[in-house]
Structure formats: C-alpha cells, structure tokens
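Example 4.3 (complexes with small molecules)
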Amino acid sequence: MLKDPSSKYQPFPLIHIPNRQWPSRHLTHAPIWCSVDLRDGNQALAVPMNVSQKLEMFDALVKCGFKEIEVGFPSASNTEFSFNRRLIEEKRIPDDVTIQCLVQAREDLIEKTVESLMGAKQVVIHMYNSTSPAQRKYVFGKTKEEIITVAVKGAQMIKDRLHRLTAGGTKVTLQYSPESFSATEVEFAKEISEAVMDVWQPTPEHKMILNLPDTVEVAMPNVYADQIEWICTNIKNRESLIISLHTHNDRGTGTAATELGLLAGADRVEGTLFGNGERTGNLDIVQVAMNLYMHGIAPGLDFSDMSGLIHMYERTTGMEVPQRHPYSGELVFTAFSGSHQDAIKKGLTGYEEHKSIWDVPYLTIDPNDIGREYREVIRVNSQSGKGGVAYLLESEFGIELPKDMQREFGPLANDIVDKLGREVTAAELKGMFWQEYIERETPFALHHFHADGVDGVFTCRCSLVINGKERGITGTGNGPIAAFAHALIQEGGAPPFEVATYREQSLSSGTEASALAFIQIKTAAGKTIWGAGVDTNIELASIKAILSAVNRAS
Ligand code: KIV
Ligand code: ZN
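Answer. The structure with 3-methyl-2-oxobutanoic acid bound is encoded below.
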C-alpha cells in the first residue's frame, strides 16, 4: 500500500445541497421491492443458473412476496430467452407479479427482448447505458451529447415496438438506468434522464421507473443520499417517476446507502437475496427488509422460513451465506460470551413474562420470527462463561449444576476449551464433566457399600480400593452420608472434611433412569470442593459424590 494514497486516489466531490431534508426524515413504510437475483445476481455466478434452477429461484422469490422480479437479460443468452418463454407459456407468473428484463440501447437486443416477453400479463422493460466520466472516456470514447443520443435512440426503439406487446394485452412499464449514476455528475444524470423522459412521456397515471444505480460504490452513503435528493428535487415531472435505488456493496455500505436513499425520497429498491452480485455483491434486500421489520414496519416480504430460503439460495447459486451475515447468518443468534448469554437468558425470561415489545439484549429480533431458535445455536468456546456451560449441560442432558458448582466447573471447562483452541460440542462438554467429577477413582474407589439405621443412628460397612489396595471400613453417623464420611476420615485415612452442601436430581439417560448427586465438602483449611456421583441407586450416587469430592481434594 502507498504511504501517501492521495498520490493515487482522491475523495469523491460533495453534492451541493443547501437545505438537505433527508437527515431529519425517518422511514415509515416499505418501498416497492424488485429482486434482481435472476439477472444481476445470476450474471455474477461462476456457473450461471440453468433454467430449472432459475425456475426454483423464481418460485421462491414469489413465495417471499416479491411483486417485481428482474428475470434476466433475454437478448444476451438462449437460457435467459427460454426461461422467459417457459415462465410465460407455462403460466408460472402470478397475476400480481411483474417480470422485468434488462436490455442495452441496441436495436437487435431490444427486438429480441420484446420477442421474449410476448404474451406476458405485465412487464418492465429496463434499458440502461453508462454515463460516468470514466465510462464515457475509456469505454465508449463518446462525448456527453453522444451518450445522450445512445439513450434517446434506444428509448425510441423501445417505444416503437411497444404496440407489439400492448396489442396482445401486455401492460408495459418502462425503466431507464443511467448506469454508474453515483459516479456521474448529477447535472448530467438529470439531463440524460430527462432526454429519455421526453421520448417515453411518462405521466402520473402511467409512470416510468428511473433507476439510479450505485453501480460501484465510490463515496459514503450520505453522498448517495444527496445525489438521490438532488435528483428528486431538480428533475422535471417528479410526479411521473418512480425513483428506484440499485446499490452495490464495494465500500461495504450498500444497505446504508439504500436506507439513506429511501430517506432522500426514493420509492423503490432493487437488490438480491443475501447480497449476491458482481464483486462485493448487490444490496442484500433481506437486510433492508428486516431492518424495517425490527423497527415495527411491515416490509411486505416474508422471511419466516429463513433456513429454507438459504438452502434454496445455496442450492441454486452455489454461493454460501456467511455465518455472520446480518439476520441470515448461522451465527447471528449465537452468543459466545458468557455475559451475553446471561443477559439474553434474562431478557428472554422477561419477554416471556410480558410478551410485549421485544427488547432482549443482544438479539435485534426474535429468532422465532424467521424460523430460527436461540437455543439451537448456543455454543461453548473459551470465551463462554459459566452460564453458557451450565445452559448447555442442562438443555442437552438435563444436568442441573448447582449455581456454586457452575462457578467451579465453568473455568475448568474454559481452560480445557482454551487449550483445544476451538469450540466444543455439548457431548464434549459432558465428557469433560464426567472426567472431572464422575470418573475420579483415585486415591479412593468404591467397591461395596451398605448402611443400616437404628433409632436415627446409621452404621455403614463398605469396602474401598485405596491407592490400589482393597480395604474394609466402618463408621457411624446420623445418616448414611455422615456415616460414610466418618468411616472415610477415621478408618480410610482421608483428610478431615465436612459435608457443606448436598443436592440430588434424577437423570434419564437411554432406557435407564439414574440419579445424579452433587456434594460440596469443606476441608479443615476451609476450602470448598465439589464432587458428583451417578448411580441407579440414589444412596450410592451420593456416596460416589463424596468420594469424587475427596478424590478431587487429594
Ligand atoms: O449495477 C448496475 O448499474 C446495474 C444496472 C444495469 C442497473 O446492474
Ligand atoms: Zn447492478
């Protein structure tokens, strides 16, 4: 990289708007959406979709609620042409859905495009030519006047062929895009758009779409918003236009540019599912729609089955949705950090009680609204706190660690996970718990245990393996646990301790129901240590829990 990038790159000039309005507006309703997955998205794929993949994607877009779908560039490939024909001839387009086709301002291409659309109920013919200084200079070698002539001639060619469609009852809307609009001088973008309007003669009753693409993001989103507001304020016959946004994501701000562009007065948004498209992609329409939704605005698109939509998208495009992609990524509703997990748990409990406005910390929306679950994505890594560890053991295996024991086991588990240097599964976590508590058999292992009580005094007789040697020990106390503790200290040679806490729970694993006992002992030095034991017999589970704690203390 250059030490002084200003020797090679320059900032984008600001737009002069003395009294800009968009910063103090807010969004109150959804725009008209147009999916360009089957055209802009498709043309950016290493292997473009075949007809059956396009049909599957089309049906999914309709199911989401898109009413305008750019289905392709039918003059550019036979696949795109046959796709249009199948859609129309097999009557696959619902009555309230309009298909849109892209075309350059060239006679042969316009001819083929019109042909591909014959028999459709309603269509948008979308013509574009590029207008920025770099495109004029390097790509076309044309002056501004010559570029306007290209657009005007193309507009006229389309107009001259409209009767072929309208005679068959097709309703046609016309769309013009000054491609590379955001890198074009606003005055020139206005001039060329008005020249096209002069040909097409839109009216408030029969508007045309003026699509203003951020073909390549060259500035911050506020600049794009200024460009949109400037056009909305200065273009003639604004009331005869549907102003449309079409952003890409080169600077990573496609969503922001679209949202600010809507504040600046646009009516319509073009984009793709999950942001598929050239280079860094098109605008991710899901993001803008869900951003509206999380502010309580009905987006008019339905992503209730987000996982199903992702599967369809991955199958048809061969692309993947990144794990941290807003709303749709696999990890979006995952909390790794213990404090986040704790806050979410409390927030979810609070929400369950009141069921009013969603205000759960760290979760922008209720995952259930898009068919996701918070529970299924909890994972444990070295940053997870005791809460995450305890949650996983409880939710996956029904192991309810006492709060104080969570404080002991949480850091132990984190240390192991840290050394592994990766996330662990719930089963691995249970394995760690078993190894740390249940499978402790040195220096003391239980061989046999029996206790009898007479008048509240219990006597236990048991055989232990102590440091590899079998020994019988006896002891008395006011219960089996106390009797065993005395036997262990007085005859087994265990350092003195007292039982501080005892808890038990039932556990059903496989076909056999068993008991899990937790015991906390306090050593003569005042140290507290937990132990746990499992057995089909609850008395034996508690005896094993004592040995587990004593073994851990040794
Ligand atoms: O990004 C773009 O400018 C386009 C146009 C053809 C609308 O895709
Ligand atoms: Zn594009």
